[in-house]
Amino acid sequence: MRLIESTYISLDGMVAGDAFWGGQQGFQGDRHNEQAAKLLNAADALLMGRATYDVFSTSWPERPGELADAINPLPKYVASRTLTEATWNTQVLQGDAVEAVAQLKASREGTLLKYGTGSFSQALVEAGLLDELHLWVHPFVAGSGEGLLSGISPTQMDLASVTEVGNGVVILTYTPKQ
């Protein structure tokens, strides 16, 4: 399986925090939604950490529309040290999450799409498991919050593509440097 991470980010590199979540609102439009749907429709399964799973599993099943129609039926995997049971067509990864993802990638075909950021994302990059990183850069400065890949070893990536989706948002797609 190929592993793609897709995440929203501010101009100053923030991916979470009150200023970030408030600032990125209002940038979505038709082209944004088309790109999100394209990414989802190409996925064979989703991967999330516990925090993302908690938010997504309580909001997406109730949503109408094309994105909900694409995300809800997909098989899902969640990395968690404490979660033992999951709903929403989700399997909890057992044992070491990075090892479990490596096994998933080796045992299946297709695309595994990861949402969310944090220590799990950092561990996947450090382990060399990420095949593509899609950064949805939003044109605002959050000023504070959580950075994307703070604290990991230096990692070089190649720019694979740039997609403009309107309202000043661009998707920068990176692959590991060969």
From TrEMBL:
Q: What Pfam families does the record point to?
A: RibD_C
Give me the segments passing through the membrane.
none
Q: Name one GO molecular function term.
A: 5-amino-6-(5-phosphoribosylamino)uracil reductase activity
**Bacterial bifunctional deaminase-reductase C-terminal domain spans which residues?**
6-170
**From its record, what is one biological process in GO terms?**
riboflavin biosynthetic process
Q: What is this protein identified as?
A: Bacterial bifunctional deaminase-reductase C-terminal domain-containing protein
